[in-house]
Amino acid sequence: MTCQALLRGTSSLVLTLATAIIAGAVQAQDLTIGSMLEPGTLDPHFRNSGENHSHLPGMMEYLMWRGPDLSVQPHLITELRKIDDLTYEASLREGVLFHDGSTFDAADVAYVIERIPAIPEGLGDFNGFIDEIERVEIVDDHEIVFHLSEPVADLARNLSAIMALPSELGIDVSPASFDSGASVIGTGPYRLQSFTPGDSLEMVRFDDYWGGTPPFETVTIRPITNDASRVAALISGEVDLIDFVPLADAARLREDVEINVFAAPESRLMFVMLDSIRDVSPYVRDNDGEALNVNPFQDARVRRALAISVDRDLLVERVLEGAGSPAAQAFSSEVSCTSPNVAVPTYDVEEARRLIAEAGYPDGFQVTLHGPSDRYPGGDRVVQALAQFWSQIGLDVEVETFTRSVFFDRARANEYSLYFAGYGATTVFNVLNAIAHTNNPDIGRGAANRGRYSNEEVDALIQQASSETDEAARCDLLERVNELVFSEDVGIIPLYHPLNTWAARAEANVTYDPNPEGLTWVRGATPTQ
């Protein structure tokens, strides 16, 4: 069921609770997860990242939830009713307690909407979800009205990215207060026990959780960024469950009767971003190693040459060992709002060489390709493969990788000429808004556009789509954006959509329900019955 499918007539959007989130008798079981990801902060609104969206929802809950089919479902907001394009009424769940014993109510929703743009030194990544909310009117403790400054295409989905906090924390509460643990007060099934960066995030069952008794007494998340170490920890019994199963180990673990493997396609696009804004790019050199006085990536012929000189079928089959599918645009073609006119680029080395020569680089040039060393399964192998593909068309590609904390900080500072990364989201709009709109963190657009690709027509279409409430009309706009970005401009080079894999020890009696967002949600793990 999609959010749009819940429209009743032209004036009402009603979301009803279908199933209990967590239920069952008290368990005496503990759970230890070995995760490649570690939250960069415990502030739920400071950084919009997979690290935070993976592990924080065990303690702090979204106002609305996203189901396994990515549809928006009721959660702390149980009903969202559209009155007109600028007015939505919302009913809040009653009987919900925060970990400090205070009651969740309308003031808490109004508080988080007010706090997000006021976060000291915040990255602004969450502003795009709430920018159009002009004010929150409190009707009573469990009824509110969202007043918008302009129409929003999917307010329910935007609210599914926002976590609840108690208003008593105050508007000036700092991210440091969360990282110390003092302000980590949520409504989730588990409450914070301790957080030691680089070592562990420990949670303990919240017995007063509104959704029923959480299934585990304690949950410990251990960040293990090294793939081999993560698998070794699983096999030795140090952890019960791991995420991001390395490609080299997935087949072997599937055949191991002592291990259970869980997998799902991920709603993430893996891509190459190019420096589109500078006339001289820092990591581009001539064949003598001297800085080029022009930026070749500003030439569409060069961008297209790079795109068609990558054999995506070979990349998926050999490098990723089948753990993915070739990408043409933001999402795979069966997803709504993707364009039927955009196909996976045809592998054509001869045409790529012709384009490079036509652009003025018959002998190629030197460039450094950057990527994170510890963020994506097989990512280190992918960047090496890209370097080999591009060597066929005359490019001398040096590969340089960093740990993800260093890599993404430098990417945000626009330090690279060419880099490999990924972006996952629940809709085509969210992907395009993040990576294809001109970078403008003040309005929450282009937050992940770290190559500074910019096209005024793309920006206008995305902005129009953000307020278009008719699904068909919105999809028409987004289809055109896909065509411009990935086919006509080749402003971003799409590579593949990954397959994410988790594994658990059979004797740990843990089942994991994989989700297309690739997030390791604590609530996705349950004791095997």
Please, what is the average pLDDT? 90
Alpha-beta classification: alpha+beta
CATH topology of the largest domain: Dipeptide-binding Protein, domain 3
- State the share of residues found in helices, binned by percent: 25-40%
Which ranges are low-confidence, i.e. pLDDT below 50, for 5 or more consecutive residues? 1-27
Shape: globular
CATH superfamily of the largest domain: Dipeptide-binding Protein, Domain 3
Largest sheet: 10 strands, mixed
* Amino- and carboxy-terminal Cα gap: 28 Å
* Cα-atom radius of gyration: 23 Å
Q: How many structural domains are formed by the residues?
A: 2
Number of DSSP-assigned strands: 23
Give the CATH architecture of the largest domain.
Answer: Roll
Q: Report the portion of residues in β strands.
A: 15-25%
Number of helices: 15
Tell me the name of the CATH class of the largest domain.
Alpha Beta
Structural summary, described in words:
The chain is an alpha+beta fold and 529 residues long. It folds into 2 domains: 4-22 and 32-212, Periplasmic binding protein-like II (D-Maltodextrin-Binding Protein, domain 2); 268-499, Roll (Dipeptide-binding Protein, domain 3). Helices cover 25% and strands 23% of the residues. The protein has 15 helices and 23 strands. Strands 3, 10, 11, 12, 13, 14, 15, 17, 20 and 21 form a 10-stranded mixed β-sheet that branches. α8 (300-308) packs antiparallel against α10 and α14 (456-466) packs antiparallel against α15.
Task: Provide the fold topology.
Blueprint: E1 7-8, E2 12-13, E3 30-35, H1 50-55, E4 65-66, E5 72-73, E6 77-84, E7 87-92, H2 106-115, H3 127-130, E8 133-140, E9 143-148, H4 155-159, H5 175-179, E10 190-196, E11 200-205, E12 218-223, H6 227-236, E13 241-242, H7 247-254, E14 259-265, E15 268-274, E16 284-285, H8 300-308, H9 312-319, E17 324-326, H10 349-358, E18 366-372, H11 379-391, E19 396-402, H12 404-412, E20 418-424, H13 428-435, H14 456-466, H15 471-488, E21 492-505, E22 510-512, E23 525-527
Helix pairs in contact: 8-10, 14-15
